[in-house]
């Protein structure tokens, strides 16, 4: 497998409105998408766009707020009440090939491949197998990059 | 201030050689720079390149291993023995203007502006003032981007 684009850095936040205000007013972000709910994942999501080189789209910051009592990020925020870096998401050309690649190396995949916040298939890998980093693998959207 | 490019994600690692092997062999990275010491910062550093859109240079992963007994990342690794995401580094056009910007907002800046791993001026901001994220601000290298 070839390392793909760093699509986004997932950042857990205790309050979405405050986080969006922070990125706009403190960090100077020009584009933050409207928050949308992903009930199956238990999160409310918004993306902060950053610029890449030469006017390309850069790596995004994915803001995630817990949605519902059993959200997978509730425990993370209990340990990090101010919020914090939660996961890294890399793109791959072929999600099934990537799944086979990590499986063959004995890496623990967390649940089935599912549709992520960009509308393409994703899966997560266990941080204990991934240098301490919760790692998301995402198929590159068709027609992009 | 305008949000600049996400230059790199800093990842603390307990053992540089293992981390480089992980990025090459597990994650499929094609370019990892030779590690170099930054004694003033108390870290050994190597960069993993990722691709951006349309063949541009993407956000890098900065691997940092403690150097010396009083390295600033020793405590982080004591809490995260496998390693983990440590900081986010954003580029700005003018480091002094950025320093004034954050100071005016009451954000705590950690120490003086100094030369960072890319040879340009940088400073760090306190994670408790920055949505739980240790944040590095870096002046864009001249002639790039």
What is the gist of this entry?
Two copies of one chain form a homodimer. With 145 residues, the first copy, chain A, is of the alpha+beta class.
Percent helix among the residues of chain A? 10-25%
For the largest sheet of chain A, list the strands in their spatial order.
2-3-4-1-5-8-7-6
The percentage of residues in β strands of chain A lies in 25-35%
The multimeric state of the shown protein is homodimer
Biggest interface, chains and residues, is: A-B, 47 and 47 residues
H/E element sequence of chain A: EHEEEHEHEEE
CATH top level label of chain A:
Alpha Beta
Remind me, CATH topology of chain A?
Answer: 2,3-Dihydroxybiphenyl 1,2-Dioxygenase, domain 1
CATH architecture of chain A: Roll
- The N- to C-terminal Cα distance of chain A equals 17 Å
What does this structure look like?
Two copies of one chain form a homodimer. The first copy, chain A, has one domain (6-139): 2,3-Dihydroxybiphenyl 1,2-Dioxygenase, domain 1. With 145 residues, chain A is an alpha+beta fold. In chain A, strand 2 and strand 3 form a beta hairpin. The first copy, chain A, has helices at residues 16-26, 74-79, 95-104, and strands spanning 6-12, 36-38, 43-48, 60-66, 84-92, 109-115, 121-125, 135-139. In chain A, strands 2-3-4-1-5-8-7-6 form an eight-stranded mixed beta sheet. Chain A is globular and about 45 Å long. Helix content of chain A is 19%, strand content 34%. The longest helix of chain A is centred in the N-terminal third of the chain and has 11 residues, at 16-26. In chain A, 41% of the residues are buried. The interface between A and B is large, with 47 and 47 residues.
């Amino acid at each position: 497998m070839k390392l793909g684009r760093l699509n986004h850095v997932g950042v857990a936040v205790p309050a979405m409105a405050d986080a969006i205000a922070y990125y706009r007013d403190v960090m100077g972000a020009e584009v933050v998408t409207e928050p949308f709910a992903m009930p199956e994942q238990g999160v409310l999501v918004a993306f902060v766009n950053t610029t890449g080189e030469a006017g390309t789209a850069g790596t995004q910051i994915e803001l995630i707020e817990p949605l519902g009592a059993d959200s997978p990020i509730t425990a993370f925020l209990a340990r990090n009440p101010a919020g914090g870096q939660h996961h890294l998401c890399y793109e791959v050309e072929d999600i099934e090939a990537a799944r086979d690649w990590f499986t063959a190396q004995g890496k623990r995949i967390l649940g089935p491949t599912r549709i992520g916040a960009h509308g393409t298939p994703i899966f997560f890998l266990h941080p204990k197998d991934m240098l301490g980093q919760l790692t998301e693998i995402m198929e590159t959207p068709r027609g992009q990059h």
